Amino acid sequence: MPTSFHQSVIDEFRANGGKVGGPFAGGDLLLLTTTGARSGASRTTPLGYVRHHDRLLVVGSNLGGPRHPGWYHNLLAHPVVRVEVGTESFEALAVPAEGARREELFAHVVRASPGYGDYQARTARLLPVVVLERAEPEEWEGRPREVRTLADKVLEVHTWLRGQVRQVRAETEAYFAAPGADGAPPSLGLQIRQRCLAFCQALEFHHVSEDGHLFPGIARHHPHLTDVFDRLADEHRTVARVQGELAALLDGLAIADPARFRAELDEMSAQLNAHLDYEEEVLLPLLADVPWPPAGATGPAATP
C-alpha cells in the first residue's frame, strides 16, 4: 500500500489533471502502477520523470538509498506497467537501460534534473534508468481497422501476439548477428527479456481467458465441435509447455543460455502460429455475427 503521503499525492494528481503542490509543485510527475512481484497486487507510485524523445525515463533512485525501490523489482517481474501523465493513461513496457545506453540516458536525466546526480553520489549501487515505451502503438501492422464483432476482437489479439513474438525473434537475431569482441554472440539483454516476458504473460492470460470463458461459451451453442475444442485445448497445453521453458530462461536478469532461448523462441513461434491459424479457421466464422463489445458492457472490454 502507498504511504499516506504518497496516497495524498496520488489523490491530488488524479483530482487535478496531473498537477500537484508541495515538494512536487512545478515538477514533471507521473504515476507508475506496477504489479507486485510477490503479491500480484497493483501498486501505484508517484515518480519524477524526464522525457527522452517520445519515451519517458524514470530512475530507481530511492533517494540515494542502498537498495532498489520496490517498484523496480515489480517491473522486473511484470514488465507491463500503467503510466499516468497529466490526464493521459496508457500501458507501457518498462525496460531498464544497460551499459553505454544507461550511461547516456543517465547523463541526459542529470542534465534535466541534477538532483539525480546527487542521489547517485550517495550510494555505491548503480541507479537504474528505466525506459517507458508504449506497450501498444496506436497503429500496428495487420490490426483490424474496426473491431465490431467478437471475430474482429479475436483477430486483433492474435495479430498482436504474432507481432510480439516476431519482434522478439527479430531482436534476438540482431544480437546473434552482432558478435562481441571475442567473436561470440553477446549475452541477450534486458530489452529482449522484458519484451519476451511481457509477451509470455499476455499469452498466458489470453489462453486462460479462452479456456475459462470463450471456448465454453461457444461450445454450448455448437456441441458438434467437441473434437475441435479438444484439439484447441491440447494445442494450448503444447504452447504452455514451450512458454514454461521460455519463462524459466527469463527467470534471471540475464538470459543464461542464449542459444537455448533462441531455439525455444523458434519453437514457440512455430507452435503458436500454427495454433492461431487453426483457431481462426474454425472459430472466426462462428463469431462473425457476435457484436463486440458485448451489449451492456461498461469500461474497457476484456480481452477474449
From TrEMBL:
Record GO terms (molecular function): coenzyme F420 binding; oxidoreductase activity
Gene3D superfamilies per record: Electron Transport, Fmn-binding Protein, Chain A, nmb1532 protein domain like
Coiled coil residues, start to end: none
Catalytic function, reaction form: oxidized coenzyme F420-(gamma-L-Glu)(n) + a quinol + H(+) = reduced coenzyme F420-(gamma-L-Glu)(n) + a quinone
Span of domain Hemerythrin-like: 151-287
GO CC terms: plasma membrane
Superkingdom assignment: Bacteria
A Pfam family the protein falls into: Hemerythrin
Family to which the UniProt record says this protein belongs: Belongs to the F420H(2)-dependent quinone reductase family.
Protein name stated in the entry: Nitroreductase family deazaflavin-dependent oxidoreductase
Organism (species): Streptomyces coelicoflavus
Lineage: Bacteria, Bacillati, Actinomycetota, Actinomycetes, Kitasatosporales
